[in-house]
Amino acid sequence: MARTIGSVEELLLAWYRVNKRDLPWRRTRDPYAILVSEVMLQQTQVERVVPRYLAWLGRWPSADALAAAPLADVIHEWQGLGYNRRAVNLHRAARAVATTGWPEDLTELPGVGPYTGAAIRSFALGEPVLPVDTNVRRVQERTGHRFGPACGQALMDLGATVCVARVPRCSACPLARACPSRGRRYEPRRRQSRFEGSFRQRRAETLRLVLAEQRELKELDGEAVASLARDGLVLVDGAVVTAPS
Ligand code: SF4
Questions:
Q1: CA distance 31 to 45
Q2: Cβ < 6 A, ligand 1 pocket
Q3: Region 130-142: what's the mean pLDDT?
């Protein structure tokens, strides 16, 4: 028997009430805290983000607090999360919010794209928008359903734990009876390129050296320094490289 979209959503939400992941950013509606969590989650796994998110909010509990911090401290705190430019953008966004408040169009903030903007509007401001990340998009595509705004967190959890990329766990899925993709397998996703020996590693190592202390340009990897400087992660003043203030 065909199910209505309403009943599919009811099945999903009933599953979510029992299987919901207890994540710290789900216990707040503070837009700044949601912004921090979403920026961290952009390219880092949930398990690694949780302790770093808690430490971050312990150190800088508000946009004002983060805006007042030296950029070098912010980059330092970010170490280990990867893709350090996110820290620079988060700091710039905090300074913008501290100066002029939250903009009507959240994508005006540095590092905030349509997904992150929608996540803040939904999870912090309670607006009726569905943030569509990789997990949500996957479930939508496989089921063929257009889910409503109330389903955001539930779709994220279903996509992260059941309707996973390669071998979905259809036998544990609340939507299985209504899903045309039930039982399918998928090609392996393209793996992220190796960090070891990569330019990313050279950048990370160079940044680590500069954060520890001011360095002579000639003792560093010049290509990595130029790339870090373009991203605002280091400052080059003649022959000297420093962390940004
Ligand atoms: S039945 Fe399988 S493919 Fe369909 S939504 Fe559930 S886990 Fe994904």
A1: 21
A2: 139, 142-143, 162-163, 168-170, 173, 175-176, 179, 181-182
A3: 96
